[in-house]
């Protein structure tokens, strides 16, 4: 059995009775047409948009290096006449 130092310096190389085999990989590669299907793009956008839509939207006014919270303007609270801010 080789010591730790011999293994590091590779003076006494390890000899195995069986050589390890690596699993083969398929030759199939994924291109942009397969990777960017409509369902994959929709799901990735949904994962990003859901937490963003739940984030609070606060308005601050900066004056003289001090930030003061103010009431949200009407356009921030309701950007569309027919939809809520989250739906918009």
Structure report:
The chain is an alpha+beta fold. Helices cover 34% and strands 11% of the residues. It has 4 helices and 2 strands; from the N terminus they run αααββα. Strands 1-2 form a two-stranded antiparallel ribbon. The protein is elongated and about 75 Å long. The N and C termini lie far apart (70 Å). 0% of the residues are buried.
Give me a quick take on this structure.
With 88 residues, this protein is an alpha+beta fold. The protein is 34% helix and 11% strand. The protein is built from 4 helices and 2 strands; from the N terminus they run αααββα.
Which SSEs are present, and which pair or pack?
Layout lengths: L3 H6 L22 H4 L2 H16 L5 E5 L2 E5 L3 H4 L11
Antiparallel strand pairs: 1-2
